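Quick one before lunch.
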Amino acid sequence: MLVSTSVETKRNLILNTLADGRFHSGQELGDKLGISRAAVGKHVQALQTLGLEIFSVTGKGYRLSNKLDLLNTETIRQHIARTSGPPLVVLSVVNSTNTYLKEHEQLHVKGAACLAEAQTSGRGRQGRPWISPFGASLYLSMYWRFEGGYQMLGGLSLAVGVAIATALEESGVQGLSLKWPNDVYLHGKKLGGILVEVEGQINDTSHCIMGIGINVELPESQQSRIDQPWADLASQMNEKPDRNKLSGKLLTSLYNALEKFEQTGLKAFLEPWSRLHLHQGKRVRMICGPNNFEGECLGINAEGALLISLPGGTKAFYGGEVSVRAL
Ligand code: BTN
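Model of the biotin complex:
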């Protein structure tokens, strides 16, 4: 029995017990934590608000809709192809893994990473929220610093996209593509996204946080919250992917890609990115605030800008507040 522990520790203990997907009575959980059955009920409600599907059946207790393979630092490390790794923090619930890395200066070491089971304020591009239910996806951020000023960082998010696709392909995922500038697609639907946040001055050190969200198995209760066609790995693979193994593979692929990006910039990623490009040679609409442009998508240039053939000639679109849609 636990004597005095934080709310988070209590909720983690409840989750670790329920992770086997079997029924556990309120009495059993209460005894483990040294709290009443009513208090267990309140913690379970709080866990449900994080997107966890926990059923409650009178006389039987509580059960998770599916078995949960919780993220574990040691297990992830076993799948990282490096002997001595940079810091790795695995959290249960956090506002945003990007924010966590930003706010913890001791983690401002190349390759330091943070993963979480759930985010309460996950962020996407263009100020959109990133729906982050518990245990359903991977929410991962990595820190890196680059010398030479942020003008050197054109195309960084494209290199990150190639790193993600490489790790997923090595894990047996087929049907992947990349949508400019930051999306990972599976069979034509969005599987994940990349949010690169950079702080730094011109010609000085740039502190970069690469945030990655990959849908693994989205619970039914959360699916209607996503406002575009989406995909998750579980529905496309024969067995539910092992999130710890996948995290290790993604982290390894990211380290390798960022080291390479440091040496060559986008150059080494142009060919693999173009091979994976969702809209290569297709007609698209570019949406830049109130302005729309329609034309053939020619691919990317050496700086990572998207080239569109328009009636007046070829126009290069650089990142920021630009979106691309197939016609
Ligand atoms: C997008 O497609 O709009 C980008 C989504 C990026 C989501 C990830 S999840 C981990 C990291 N933390 C965040 O708050 N956002 C990124």
